[in-house]
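ok here's XdhC family protein:
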Amino acid sequence: MQDTIGDDPLGIAEAWRQQGRAVAIATVVETWGSAPRPVGSHLVIDSEGHFEGSVSGGCVEGEVISQALDVLETGAARMLEFGVADETAWRVGLSCGGQIRVYVERID
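and the structure:
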């Protein structure tokens, strides 16, 4: 039997919230070039570092999760930018080209 939430990160986030877990959501808000996920893609993260969804197909998820954990701790949302011209490009693995902007916020 298939899970009723399926692969929907927003549904998973809501289920986590109902379990009393702190949750952050990362949303792709802008892309350019060969970004692997479209605008509107989501990655949800709980305070234990569990995550579902994707904002880049694996290129920047590690950094986004790290930033989301800080957002959960501080409550301060932030805009993250990654690209081949960015100094973090090689560290986060977005060497395939393109640019991506991801907004990370706590959902209450």
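+1. The first helix runs from residue 9 to 18.
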